[in-house]
Amino acid sequence: MPGLSAPKLLLSNNILNEGNAGSIASAFHSTRHIQWAEAIFIPRFGASSLYRFAALCPLDPDQQLRLALKVPRLAFDFFAVLQPPSTTFHSEPALCQLHLDNSPGALLRIPVNLVKMLTQDKNVAWFDEQPAEGQISPAARRLLETYSSVPSDKVIDHVVKIRDRAWEIFPYPCIGQFRFLDMSLNQFAEYKDIVQRLQAGQKLLDMACCFGQEVRQLVADGAPSENIYGCDLRQEYINLGYELFLDSDSLKTKFFTADIFDASSALTELKGQLNMVYAGSFFHLFGYEDQVRVSKIVASLLLPEKGSTIFGRQVGAVNADEQDHTTNLTGRMFRHNVQSIKEMWKDIGNDLGVSFVVDARLLELQQGHLRFHTSDTKRIWFVIRRE
Prior knowledge:
Elements: H1 21-25, E1 33-42, E2 49-57, E3 65-71, E4 76-82, E5 95-99, E6 107-111, H2 114-117, H3 138-147, H4 155-169, H5 173-176, H6 191-199, E7 204-207, H7 213-220, E8 228-232, H8 235-245, E9 254-257, E10 276-280, H9 288-300, E11 309-317, E12 321-324, E13 332-335, H10 338-352, E14 356-363, E15 377-386
Parallel strand pairs: 7-8, 7-10, 8-9, 10-11
Antiparallel strand pairs: 1-2, 1-6, 2-3, 3-4, 5-6, 11-15, 12-13, 14-15
């Protein structure tokens, strides 16, 4: 919302919503504009939750970052001011702390680098202006050319156009590096069996589906689209998926949005209904304790019978650890190795009174992913079956 002119005074008691964000923004410098994003609200007691906030940007990381935070479940809105420390990418401390007005004891913890991310700054390690050779895999190109009928010489332009719009929604690393076109489910040894199970009427959920690229690959390979569900936190990405794959008139997959921690979300309608869940780059968005919580929720979606399966892949490590993570909105990431993921699911099974068998393996990251990961970072692939 450029071109605003107004006093420098920070307003403090206005109700904020998307409808009046423009008038509230007029209280700030003309070089700034409203940018919607998400943050983590962490009460002194209780679990963290995702909330929406508006950040006024662009901002220098050493300047004050004024946030207007809307907490829909608490029935009040307030402004707060963050003073981030002088720091560079991957420097310590990895988290800023934001004390919230009108909420004694409450704390907002956001990664230092999120300050930069909120500006959609493209001068970051995880943004590529154009896909390098191999970044759009042969499988992804084939899918776009055959399933979506995108002309071969138009594929790059088509993908970049969609990616740039997605970056403006929120600058996730997987968006900046075109990793939303990494097809992973078809790399599992069980992939043919997955397609056959769907053809036989079984149901699969693509958790955190982003554009629904895995869904389209399954459909292109013969799976009935009506037997597949896709869930993401952002409706905008689901909408962009239809534009990327040009199938809004033909795809019968049911897509929906949900917060995994919201007990009243649309996910609850699938509880105990699914034969399979695919969770690509999902569980690693959380620290260990929240991974356990999230894993139990995902497990509850499975049919309570032998053979119900969770497939997935995510960031792992040779030595399992939990660390501050500057591009996770929770600010934390637990990186599993084979032993730790098996132990976690053994504990989950004990808590739920269910037995799970875990098959997992660590593989090397693709070279491009190493630009902002440490040398011991790997990718862990896993299949979790209910006994």
